[in-house]
Amino acid sequence: MLKGGLAVSLRSGGKVEQMLMRLAFHARDGMSRDELLGDLWPSAELALAAQSLNTLVSWVNRTLYNGPAGCALIVRSFGRYRLNTDGGVRVDVLEFDASVSAGDLRARAGDRPGAISSYEQAVALYTGDLVAASDVDHLIERERLRARYLRVLAELSEDWFTMGSYDLALSEAYDLLAREPCREDAHRMAMRCFVRMDQRAQAVRQYRLCRDVLAIEFGVAPERTTDALFDLIRSSPQSV
Question: What is the pLDDT averaged over residues 86-92?
Fold first, then answer.
């Protein structure tokens, strides 16, 4: 969490961290009091748990927020607690989704430079997989965000390749492989970049790396598309 641009240290696993994590996860719709009480104090007496929640919210608003006067980090409206995004509270997940959606919209409109700008904003916001609780909803959300992030890396790599920026395309491909070593599309992109950069031997090594990773992880061979690209690199690299 950031306050005034500076990191605020919270006790790992503490009630403040748990509450903020859950409210950030439900930033769009907020959470009811009963939902928060059930998550944070599942075994406590209702009255004591409600008092603890009030104390916790008050402490967070008093200690952790430095937004506009009269505003609070956590607000309650229509019976639901929410992070005060209207009052300046920023949630990286919401901003990530907004940047990806803006990139997709610009890409569909044919504005590739604009799409790249939005996608790069999204990549900068994604500093790691969602720190999720063990329940199914959190796990699904973590995988949704991860899949969206990997798709953006693939889009950026393809865009840079199309624009002739092979070093940038290669960098995005390797960022993708760092997260998902078995992504054959990223291996193929790296192979294509190496050929365009006059490094055919490295393109061949990239194919062998792809083949070995797939064999180790899943016991399978590369896709026909990957094999076909490898054959083309050996026989007619100028066609790649």
Answer: 87
